[in-house]
Amino acid sequence: MEYNTGIAADSSFASFQSALEYVFELAKIKRIVLVIDEYPYVARASKSLASTLQLLIDKNKDSSKLFLILCGSSMSYMEDHVLAYKAPLYGRRTAQFKIKPFDFFEVCEYFTNLSDFDRALAYGIVGGTPQYLMQLDDHLSIEENIKNTHLNPTSSIFEEPNNLLKQEVREPAIYNAVITAIATGCSKMNEISNKIDEDTSVCATYIRNLITLGIVKKESPYGEKSSRKTIYSIEDNMFRFWYRFVPENTSIISRGATDLAYKRIAPQLSSYMGGVFEEICKQYLWRLLLEDKCAVNFSGIGRWWGANPKTKFQEEIDIIGTDKDTALFAECKWTSEKVDLGVLETLVERSTLFSFKKKHFYLFAKTGFTKGCINKAVEMGNVTLVVYEDMLKV
Questions:
Q1: Most buried residue among 15, 54, 175, 279 by CB atoms closer than 10 A?
Q2: How far apart are CA 158 and CA 226, in angstroms?
């Protein structure tokens, strides 16, 4: 039903205050929803806007039926100038939402025309942010999409990382260097600081800000709190892909040699997708848990790495999840070859580093398993083999 505000369509207000006063007054009569999108831009243009909103909210809180929604893509601004204790609007909100990207399975629903394998690749190159997903065309191949986005100087995705950092931080060049270092293999604080030639204390500040922005994530081996083992990786897939492949090919891309740039990237796609597939498998396990279909009722899952006292070598386990005296151990393989018995045996051996009464093993494979692996899994009775295509049926 339309609601006549009594104001002509071409009317204007002398200030934000007069416009907001009108809306607040109107909302005394009827429930009104007012959405201010990209609030940080408006607030920067009008320094008094936050104080005006504070005044009007306090004045009309008992009589107004206004439902006010403030949206902003600048996380740092929303946290520092809207949610923070010293912000004018602190204490006035009734709720706040941090809108997260779609997970892999939600992304699959969007790319209906891509093959199953290409859906994983699409998620790997742009992640789950709707604006980035919209830049891909699911009627084209993944190769063509990569060329049209990350390898195209005129595309919005090509400029997105730099534009976002300029919006969020004061020294984008140093932040760029930090992200590039992490994306190209520097995972420990000392490795990152050496790569960018900055003191570790300075480097830690940059990384902390990147974690707040959701670009970088901090990890410790599952079940441990030792800061000595802390590593850092790129959280967002679009950033992970961009910083992994674009900086080292910038000169080629800027000369329009898109085909050459892609030829340099293509052989590395499978290894790049290894980390992405691990994340997809974690999301799959969470879905199983929430549907009460998981073999272990875990409370959390994560990666584990550390020294094996028997072999004296560093070992890794892709996924571990625990529930009291029961543990889940998983290995994820994004390779064209079928996963063989050796992978299962290695996972079982590594699980002996943990003293749980009951253990269940998950193996995730891109294409399938060898007969020997399947037979051993059946014999053991506590092994679940999952082929990637079957994950999409959950």
A1: 175
A2: 37
